[in-house]
Design goal:
The protein has 439 residues and is of the alpha/beta class. It is built from nine helices and 22 strands. Helix 1 crosses helix 9 and helix 2 packs parallel to helix 8.
Amino acid sequence: MSYQNSNLERRRFLKLLAGAGAISLMPASLPSRAQTRAKIVIVGNGAAGISLANRLVQHLSTDQISLVGARQRHLYQPGQTLVASGLWKVSQVLSTTEQWLPAGIKWHQQNASAFLPEQQKVVLENGTTLSYDVLVVAMGTQLNYTHIEGMDERLIGQHGIGSVYPGPEGALATDTAFKQFMNRGEGKAIFTLAETPIKCAGAPLKMTFTSLARLEQTGHRQAYDVNFATPFKDRLFSIPVYNDFVMERFGNQGVDIADQKTLIGIDPTNKKARFSLTATGKTRVEEYDYIHVVPPMSAPDVIKHSDLVWDHGPHKGEWMAADQYTLQHPTFPNVFGIGDVTGIPLSKTAASVKKQVPIVEANLLSYLNDKPLEAEFNGYTSCPLITGFGKAILAEFGYGGKLLPSFPFISPTEETWMAWVMKEQMLLPAYQAMLDGKI
């Protein structure tokens, strides 16, 4: 089916998709209104924190729930790749935090400056101390651009530097930088991948695919040298079936893939990038005309400097500790983690948040009622992997790389126009319903 199908076919498909989506997103049955006066503090007012707050007010009094976070704007982060690819306007990914908050809960418009889990307290930046019976941490990721020598988030949009991650303005600046690169008529582009876990692991690949599509539209694709640098050996994506697809497609589209190669420094004025080469232990400096930077990521410093961080294992000192199934902290049972901040396999997508919110909701209520925590997160992650304009793969998978397709009429391993429509038109309404606590 092509992107130019008739409006009638399009409407029929969207109706079918919406119906199937409604079935797949039905929440699990939960306990009735909890008989408790426990105080719940949710730290983080992004997608995870807001969604959970809207669900908890169905079970608890609003005066029992506090939300912590200074961010006034709400960002639809899955749309930032579309902004950076010249397909969406900034306004399409922006709303306000206030419009999504349930009436009656207390919103502390400050960020957390310290966690004291032994005392069951959170300290805010203005010095306020909040006590809690249950704490939920939903703080998202920290973008560590300064771990790349010479790099600063403010450079995005200048000196041929793009990066889709910081926000809609950064995404727009990335679009501007790439247009300037295209207008050169020739040149070298380098797309990078960080060696740390990152939110939306498919975003660097999407940016490469949409950039290739834009270069092909110029009619002079052969004039541009496109490179992709990955820190890993023979890997661009963690799930083998999708990794094989991307490796083959990049090869067919003339992308030079360099593995075991990590961006560690940048000289913006001279447009030079410095890479570490794992295989040889050496470094290499390369010139570029455009570079898409993916920064190393971690939990926010306030988590890393607290007793909530992992003290062992692969996420030691970098991500919040949480059981990968119940999302409960292994040391402090009245603490739960949700979304990107947790150090668990997979999970750093909005789709993961959609699946995790009901898990935390159910387990939090079970904890308050002294019942076993029976709800389990299966690692569900969804990445509508844009492979060109009008086509995408709806990659859905969980722990162990198991494919977890939601829609019987969308293959999880094939490029389709339907998956493109999911990304471009259907996911934002579903995301907004999640924020409202409806799915």
